[in-house]
Design brief:
The protein is α+β, with helices and mostly antiparallel strands. The chain contains 26 helices and twelve strands. Helix content is 62%, strand content 7%. It starts with 6 loop residues before the first helix and ends with a helix.
Amino acid sequence: MKMTVDFEECLKDSPRFRAALEEVEGDVAELELKLDKLVKLCIAMIDTGKAFCAANKQFMNGIRDLAQYSSNDAVVETSLTKFSDSLQEMINFHTILFDQTQRSIKAQLQNFVKEDLRKFKDAKKQFEKVSEEKENALVKNAQVQRNKQHEVEEATNILTATRKCFRHIALDYVLQINVLQSKRRSEILKSMLSFMYAHLAFFHQGYDLFSELGPYMKDLGAQLDRLVVDAAKEKREMEQKHSTIQQKDFSSDDSKLEYNVDAANGIVMEGYLFKRASNAFKTWNRRWFSIQNNQLVYQKKFKDSPTVVVEDLRLCTVKHCEDVERRFCFEVVSPTKSCMLQADSEKLRQAWIKAVQTSIATAYREKGDESEKLDKKSSPSTGSLDSGNESKEKLLKGESALQRVQCIPGNSSCCDCGLADPRWASINLGITLCIECSGIHRSLGVHFSKVRSLTLDTWEPELLKLMCELGNDVINRVYEAKLEKMGIKKPQPGQRQEKEAYIRAKYVERKFVDKFSTLSSPSQQEKRTISKSCEEQRLSQVRASVHSVKSNDSGIQQGSDDGRESLPSTVSANSLYEPEGERQESSVFLDSKHLNPGLQLYRASYEKNLPKMAEALAHGADVNWANSDENQATALIQAVLGGSLVTCEFLLQNGANVNQRDIQGRGPLHHATVLGHTGQVCLFLKRGANQHASDEEGKDPLSIAVEAANADIVTLLRLARMNEEMRESEGLYGQPGDETYQDIFRDFSQMASNNPEKLNRFQQDSQKF
């Protein structure tokens, strides 16, 4: 190794040594300035990068808002959602890059400056101090007179001691210089190499991300080319229509008004009329009138609700009015009131009078044919069969989440409007929705419905299993129990306003829920009838599920962590919902008598009966209701005791407090740890359970798991605690953690949902001893 300052020259304290020191000290001072400048530039770059990420995130949120706004255009919404997800990934990659830059450049070089250069400066101060003392000793020794023997001896002793101290400190100083000069190369190169590797990883991640997005962008580009061609074609057609209409004679507005009794939208005729007010001044106001649904209505603005002038056209007459000062007037007379109207011309007046007369005659005919039309509407059409076959073909070709969820009875069509092949779901309700209904559900708020895409979003195994345990048929039996009794029809696809009113009445106001369905027990004869029909239905579902499993080998394996036999997803919903012999009879029919909703939810959670839990929530049960008769235990704690991971997930999705504790100070995480339910421990940790909480005995979940020697749960708890400490130390609050932590928890979630027997090692090992 080449030494910057020679040790021999140090002992001589020669001019060469002093010159070398002067050169090194100047070089180190300049190095410190350069490193300080580089660290400051790095801090500025990181701050600017974080500001860029924040602005980029706002831009990405703007794209997502635009995607939600474009919910009626599936192509635009899907594309913008995919692009916003990709941009979010790039923001994450940028954040990782800046974090690594902070570690490699800022932290490492700052540490070099603060530690190594500080040691150099301290050694330099000591060296300068001892050098000055040595010079003073030499001068004093030279000045002493030979006849003063005492002073000679004293000066000699001081010089000898000073020289020894100088040599010791000088050699240390030279060693510090040589070590610093050697270390500076490795520190600088190591930090820069780490910085460049961070950039390499960043660009690799971006390349991989957009390589996966590339085929979709290519397809979208081809689709966009077709849209441009279609837009150009539509533009030419509109220009031609514009030219044709422009050539017409518009000297009067008579040609623009026509009436059609068989109009598809139900509006026979519409247009502006002057209406005379019924007040004392008899003022005339111009309003937009229309004849629709055998009624005469008007509105001032398009968004205003129509005001009904004539409730039933069959009960009114129309006639000319010549006894008023204004021209072109006619009067519509009903048994309760009359309405004076004025058209803009005689031709328009005749057209309106004829339209009203024709509508009156049509109303009488439609009343006679009403029963026949109802029969035609209720008969099945061949189109519904064709759409069913198409949906089955799509199930075989679609993604696993879409395929598994749509296999549940009733899930092949929208839960609220019946549109086939729904691609969206409400995860806390367990239903499938079309894109229009999903937008309405979003507007209700997440405390009523949490919407997720079956094709665009990533589905956790326990969440997918929850969807397979419920379904549209099960939920509609609860939320539409009184629909037929009330004589209300479900809205049809495309009726946006009707859908909004219906969905709000169904889920927010819960108007169609039978509040007394669980408060009365059926007779024994009814129980036997229900049990028999359930068995027949279960047999048919098992046959259908076998056929489904044979036709699709790529489906998700349905595991069970609650001790039940694993069945295909096509029968899971109804097998939970319908009674099963005497056990189900006692738990549903007998125990549910006179239960308040909170207690019903509490008991159904232990019985792993998700349909009964959904029914209890529909009846207004508080998901965090505590049973004062049983140590203030909650439904979530009962779900833990029942051993069902899916039941816990259902309660959490519906707002259950994961940290609510019983009278002994034990929350769901405590109970899951005591019982050795690894899958539930993993779920609660992912949902933000507080693992530091202690029960009345002063034990937290980790100490309980250590005492029980449950290696899997100890691993999960320690890993979660370590990840929490790491995020707090690095200031990464609100972030999930590093990739290793996420991968381990993802593996445990997969095992808990699909292969629970792999997590039974603790119970099996304990049974051996």
